[in-house]
Amino acid sequence: MIGAVCAGLSKGGFSGLGLLTVILYASIFGARDSTGIVLPLLIVGDIGAVTIFRQHARWDHIWRTLPLSAAGVVIGTLIMLHLDNASFRPLLGGVILVLTVLQLIRLRWPDLYGAVPHSRPVAWALGLIAGVTTMVANAAGPLVALYYVAIGLPKMEVVGTLAWFFLIINVFKVPFSAGIGVIHGSSLTLDAVLMPAVVVGLLSGRWLIAHISQRMFDSVLLGFAALAALRLML
Fold it and tell me: How far apart are CA 161 and CA 149, in angstroms?
């Protein structure tokens, strides 16, 4: 339930909390199999986020990254076909650790990524990497958020653009996840029980983001995420 609430909070503006959802579910259900449990919960959060923040989306930036992200999902599926839970744990831990470090760097030096070029090759490369990462770990949110921040989108436009981008890409992932066996009847039954907690997290995130310093909140959160990622790797 805590992991589901964190998934909702991540869609409500506290994107770093999505890493905790990934870590908690990987610890309980196994790194590979947990991806199929987390995905439907994220889609519920995406639908709620689109409902709340849809007017802030920047579709020009969504279309620049989306096609290569779809290709990245296909590549990520091929990677997952050759990995079991035991070998997937260090890969997942590495992905989370890299994303955590990137987030911590952004919090320490907010303008460091400001020089990222706005060219299409950069958007395409980001989209491809995000597609692979979201397929193998459901952990591309901080990565894409970093890109949107780096190109200068205001906070609300970042949240609204992320909402639509991940709703589209997460729905696109469903048949691939079902095809490799990580989404099945038992996982969907569990998701049905946990979905109300996602909604609670989403609404809480919408309220909290206006009342709490996200910088301080994310700093503490990402510290724990880094420790948990190292645990997965080692």
Answer: 11
